[in-house]
Amino acid sequence: MALKKSDLYSSLWSSCDALRGGMDASQYKDYVLVLLFIKYVSDKYAGQPYAEITVPAGASFSDMVALKGKPDIGDQINKKILKPLADANQLIDFPDFNDSTKLGDGKEKVDRLTELIAIFEDPRLDFSKNRADGDDILGDAYEFLMSHFATESGKSKGQFYTPSEVSLVIAKILEIAIAGTSAETTVFDPTCGSGSLLLKVASEARSAVTLYGQEKDSATAGLARMNMILHGCPTATIAQGNTLTTPKFVLGERLLKQFDYVVANPPFSDKRWSTGLDTTNDLFSRFDGFGAPPDKQGDYAYLLHIVRSLKSTGRGACILPHGVLFRGNAEADIRRNLIRKGLLIGIIGLPANLFFGTGIPACILVLDKKGAQSRKGIFLVDASKGFVKDGPKNRLRAQDIHRIVDVYTHRLEVPGYSRMVGLDEIEKNDWNLNLPRYIDSSEPEEIQDITGHLQGGIPHADIESLAPYWSVCPNLKKSLFRPLRKGYAKLAVEKNSLRTAIFEHSEFETFMTGMREHFEAWRKKTAKRLRKLETGFQPKALLAELSEGLLEHYEGKPLLDPYDIYQHLCDYWDASMQDDAYQIAADGWKAETYRLIEKNKAGKEKDKGWACDLVPKDLVVDRYFPKQKAQLEDLVSKQEAAGARMTEQEEEHGSEDGFLGALDKIAKAEVNRRLKELKGDKSATEEVSVLKEWLESAETETDLKGQIKKQEAELDALAYAKYPDLTESDIQSLVIDDKWLKKLSQAVSESMDRISQQLTRRVKELAERYETPLPKLTDRVAELEAKVAGHLAKMGFAWN
Q1: How confident is the model at residue 153 (pLDDT cuts 50, 70, 90)?
Q2: Which residue has the higher pLDDT, 724 or 159?
Q3: CB 81 within 8 A of CB 37
């Protein structure tokens, strides 16, 4: 059976449990990722002559397994595994597997490392046939771990990782995919961290490119090197050192090496950037023509390093805090010179709290040297409102990324979101690039109509603000409102009947029917395409094809945001569909069942039934055994009704002075005991009746529970026996029609339902706002005031 992404993720993440307690996430990530790396290179390269990565004899993962339980396991890993690997491949700074301060002493260390190695022995973690490229399950697992480690590492230690969503935005807006690349195309990240940003840019290129990176922290540089290998870029050059004081990619002593593309997420507002650097006489002339950045604010130092590192036709992108757009003094001079020279082509404002090292909002500054002298403006995008909360951080959704990229690459001017701003306008604003000066992304203020409040009536202006609805259903407006006086209207239906009036209106029904037919057209076309999937297809390519097709299918449709529909597919892919896709890509259309075995703390196994990942049991039951399922549901409904009757009786007669409350415990044995006591007691007729009624409900419930258990077992056996008979066509119908497309259909239907709900809510809100004019409110207040005064007078209090 193919390894599911979710299983791989949970397996790898559980490996962290073996290390938690002795160190924080910023430290134990190194150990887990090194194990992942060694397992991968051993599976893929061990024993292969002339391989891109050399695995010396005696230094493979199997040799590490042989060290489990040995008292000197940590020292042996360092000497026999890590050192030979590092020496043979020029790897940087592996963590110390014999560090007692982190791993513990004696048996604690031995057990911890033994358990960690055992996790990676899972036979499903066989990477010998794993392609470490753009559609690689392993590379994604590495990103998953890096993201989680960054989250757990906290504010000061999570800067080794750029969120993959932001990296993807940068990779796409550089348009490397359409530029035409080759092995001679160079991409550089001067503050590469773990290398995720570099790799995202490389994955967007249509052919292999040459990658370069520099990272100040030696341990993080080691992670970057491993990351390159795990993603199939073993020839990438990762250097360790301070980019600003000792750049490693130079030509001679005074020239920086230049690249086709440069990307970076440098440390925000680095206050120590100038330590060890002569800023007035920079060896590499990075500040000439621009000005030196302030000593305690290093943002522009990194940006100017990028400028000098770009070829004359090069493009770059750098993530910096928003302050670089408007801060004054030396930074204002640098900003003015960058704009005047035409180097700055675009700015994208991002939401706050995206990054692991800080909660402040950031922006992407896009540089382009080609055509700089003739540049007349800068394209600005304010994407600060598009995100979703994800634990303690914010995160860009797939639709947010797509919207940013679409708007930026096509230079679409969207009110409140993006616009091209001429250099003359920027100059008038004293070269200040603060986005709110040029784009008003604030929510429009709710306007209160004074006349409406004084005299009643819904203003026509508020009604016309719902024009998108009326354009689809022009007569619906006439059905909901009728004239009151010039410029004002009132509801033509009761407030409580609004949703029905909207949902059942002929024009709205026609619109909804048309939207269902529109989805059905996509569903039929997509189902046909999905039935052609064969072993070996690329799941990520499938997602791109389906999601782009769905987005295009809904482009221009009224009342719906096509990006919302697109997000439904992306969410379902992440939650479930990708596991199915990877399984089909590996094994084909096979519905394999397996036993669910659970181990207790003593290691004893217990059979918890069976399951099938690709075709869950409920799909088989729904399609092939609907009659039996209906019978079971009927029994469950009756059992719930019996239970409800018991609850009602217990609530009614369960108080201390009630017939059931007088029992030591409300249970069958106690009720039967009490009935025996009351046998022949004619004065206890009512109590006997209550007890018998409860007992009858309890026995009915017990009987129904037995029937349910028996019927569940019979239905379970029927379903289990059906799997061997399923043909490939049957499996495709179950997965494509009953699982994938049914789920998407439900999600799209919910979006459609929200349309009527939003209109209903807004119309009701307007009606309630203006339904009681001020004179009536004043009269009502006076009336209530008089009542209060009367009550107080009766109580002997004076009312002034």
Answers
A1: low
A2: 724
A3: no
Choice between 7 and 687, residue whose per-residue pLDDT is larger: 687
Task: List the structure tokens of 600.
Answer: 């207790």
Q: How many helices (H) and strands (E) does the chain have?
A: 32, 18
Contact 718, 623 (CB under 8 A): no
For 342-385, the pLDDT digits (tens) are: 999 999 999 998 887 678 889 999 999 999 999 999 999 999 99
Q: Using CB atoms within 10 A of its CB, is residue 662 exposed (0-12), middle (13-18) or buried (19+)? A: middle
- On whether the CB atoms of residues 140 and 32 are closer than 8 A, the answer is no
Phi-psi region of 43 (alpha: psi -120 to 50; beta: other; left: phi over 0): alpha
Q: d(Cα 627, Cα 159) in Å, to the nearest integer? A: 58
Residue with tokens 């990782």: 161
Per DSSP, 23 falls in state B
Secondary structure (H, E, C), 71-111: CCHHHHHHHHHHHHHHHHHCCCCCCCCCCHHHHCCHHHHHH
Question: Positive or negative, the Cα torsion across 150, 151, 153, 156?
Answer: positive
Nearest to 36 by CA among 200, 218, 230, 167: 230
Measured distance CA(53)–CA(51) in Å, rounded: 5
> Of the segments 52-56, 257-261, 606-610, 651-655, which one has the largest average pLDDT value?
257-261
Closest CA to 211 of 223, 222, 199: 199
Helix H segments across 385-536? 398-409, 423-428, 450-455, 460-464, 467-472, 474-480, 498-503, 506-530
Q: Among 202-206, 248-252, 315-319, 344-348, name the one with the lowest average pLDDT.
A: 202-206
Residues 152-173, mean pLDDT to the nearest whole number: 73
Query: Six-digit token pair at 551?
Result: 């987005």
Which residue shows structure tokens 């634990």?
Answer: 391
Distance CA 382, CA 393 (A): 19
pLDDT at 132: 36
Is the separation of the CB atoms in 345 and 308 below 8 Å?
Answer: no
pLDDT digits (tens, 9 = 90+) for 423-482: 999 999 999 999 999 999 888 888 888 888 888 899 999 999 999 999 999 999 999 999
DSSP helix/strand/coil, 355:
coil
Task: Please name which of 517, 515, 502 lies closest in space to residue 560, comparing C-alpha atoms.
Answer: 515
DSSP-derived 3-state class of residue 465 = coil
Report the distance separating Cα 778 and Cα 237, nearest Å.
78
Look at residue 29 in the predicted model and tell me its pLDDT.
72
371: left (phi over 0), alpha (psi -120 to 50) or beta: left
| Angle ∠(526,529,533) on CA atoms, nearest 5 | 130
Picking from 418, 398, 421, 400, the residue whose alpha carbon sits closest to that of residue 410 is 418
- CB-CB contact of 167 with 396 (8 Å): no
The one-letter amino acid code at 38 reads I
Q: 3-class SS at 215?
A: strand
Instruction: Give the CA dihedral 592, 595, 598, 602, nearest 10 degrees.
Output: -130
28-42, 103-117, 380-394, 623-637: lowest mean pLDDT where? 28-42
User: What percent of the chain stands above pLDDT 90?
Assistant: 57
CA-based nearest residue to 325, from 264, 382, 284: 382
Residue 670 in tokens: 């106690």
Pairing of strands 186-189, 210-215: parallel
Task: Give the whole-angstrom CA distance, residue 293 versus residue 290.
Answer: 9
- CA 275 to CA 780: how far, in whole Å? 73
Q: What share of the chain is helix, strand, coil (3-state, %, to 5)?
A: 55, 10, 35
CA distance 9 to 24: 20
* H or E stretch at 562: helix 562-572
Polymer length in residues for the chain: 800
d(CA 587, CA 735): 15
Most distant CA atoms of the chain, gap in Å: 113
